[in-house]
Batch of 3 targets.
Target 1
Amino acid sequence: MSPEEAIAAFTAALFSMMNPIGNVGIFAGMTKDTPIDEAKQTAWMCALAIAITLLIVAWCGPYLMLFLGVTVDTLRVAGGIVVLIIGLHMLFNKSEHKQTTEETKDATERQSIAVVPMAIPIVAGPGTMATVLIAVQHYETLFSKVIISAVSVSLAALCGLLFSFAGPIAHRLGESGMGVVTRVMGLVLAAIAMGMLTEGLKALLPGLA
């Protein structure tokens, strides 16, 4: 795989995992009683939290994996399973992968939902973190980390932009429109997850190759 193809594949995987378009409806629902200016401020705070989270994962995650003795291949398998489960939930438009009922109730009682639960775990959840971790474990050069960081920050900014206009976007797409987007992203994620699983299992169990 060429560097350009690798960047494109990572961008597609991360975009699908973050699902900024599908999550617009969630953000709109959580900020429906919030003044427009305050909702936009919350959107950009959420984007900042997403960017910081993914940058920490990209630059500190590999050292944590080394400390814990986790290899890139075992991470691929585990990450592939997590991503596959999330992709299947999205494919059937279920919300179990986003947050529990208790987390949703807690979110309604918070003054700001920018960091919890919007940034974590809805956008930058375990699957998103696993996608970034696998990428930085596979492409270990400094330049690769910079590219991964740039893609992560760009997609976080895209989330902030879309969330800033969450009300109009959600109204225009409607529940069915955002459901279609979520299902498409789920199908893409399921396909990506199978690739992650296959690569990891081939390395761990050479006989399968």
Target 2
Amino acid sequence: MIMSLRSSLAVATLVVAFAIAGSAQARSEPRDFCPDRPGKGSPPCVMDVGRFQAELGLVDSAFSRGGGASVDDTALGGLELRLGLTPVLEGQLSWTAHERIRTKDRAAGTTSTISGTGDLTGAVRWSLRNPGGDGVSIALQPFVTAPTGADGIGGGMWQGGVIAPMSIPLTADWSLALSPELDARPDADGSGRHAGFALAGGVGRSVGPFALGAELWVDVDDDPADRVTSASFDLTAGWTPKALPDVQFDASAYVGLNRATPDLELVLGVARRF
């Protein structure tokens, strides 16, 4: 209980400090609005110096059925804060306010539930080419995750990695996005760390105020006890109302492609630039 309280206070302190720092920065002419949401990949665009952005996962629900069990995993309040630090660098903080995992053993007729807050992740995104996300855009995004989450929800150990987001225009309307990722993840038995690999790749286009996308996502968790590969096909949509050019509402559906991946995941969220 004490650790949970300390973790919550630490998260609140970081969120307030991040917001204050954003308001104190000098502002420049705005780049195109470029949220991280939706989808599992990361865009290469970097926030303008001094601009602050909040992105909120309203609900993220994943459903798995198979092997005589059903698992419903629902996260609420997945918050990401972004701040432009230099013309080519931004800082990020992300945290999930509440996650609930309900597992039902259909054969035994038993149900178990765990819930709590998620881990706290800090990251920086460094643009190597075209920080506004226009043209061929490339960035590096190292991150580190602190084990602030509840037992069974968080990773339980410090971990980190690096993502290399990039986007490539294909035509006047279509673009290709890739997000290769390399991680150091905690072993299942808590004895050490192992490598993890992920790749999100997809195409997208804008249709008026809507941004539509389709992507494939693959994740390889090379745990010494059991190597697990997950994969999904994802459809995403974002809507930026004409009257609210710094706001995006989004929805996503992720369809699992193997037994190690949830059968279906549905996500709703919103992003707001200040």
Target 3
Amino acid sequence: MSLSEMITLVRRDLKDETAPYQWSDEELTRHINHAIRELSESLPLPVRAILPTVSSSREVNISSLIDRVMVQAVEYPLDEYPPQYQRFSIWGDTLTILSGDKPDGSNCCVYYGKLHTIDATSSTLPSKYEDLIASGACGYAALSLAAASINKVNIGGKVTSEELRTWGNERLKIFQEGLKRLGRRQRVRTQQLFTD
């Protein structure tokens, strides 16, 4: 799904399909990206990167891992069977390998999760979560408009901002419940990636 298709889906849910639009494309893009960032915290895009180590140092520079949400595992040395996963810690953009032999300057593999993206032609979002993103974006858009309509004259009366706020909160509740079901932080892990 492209960004324009996602904007169309959000507009359909907001009942904002006829010009002049209540929300601009830029506003909806901002709300869509907000929802995508939240989804990425619960279900990041899984990727891996081969990074160099420094001889006689346990520290690995991970600043090149753009849009990193979390690090799942570190494999060092490479090309071993079974793979040798190491215990590690992270401080800022420095990953420290805590177990195994001290690196000799060869490469390691970092398995990590990063933010999902959506642009004019493509998306990294699994299609089964597109409606969840639309719910979150609708909630954020409704709350934003509700806040902007306070103390403004409108033809809907004084309940309009309250109704928008209520509807927006309901959409966000659906979104947050969906994220909880997907949440990586709420799961009990039973696998073992390394041995002492």
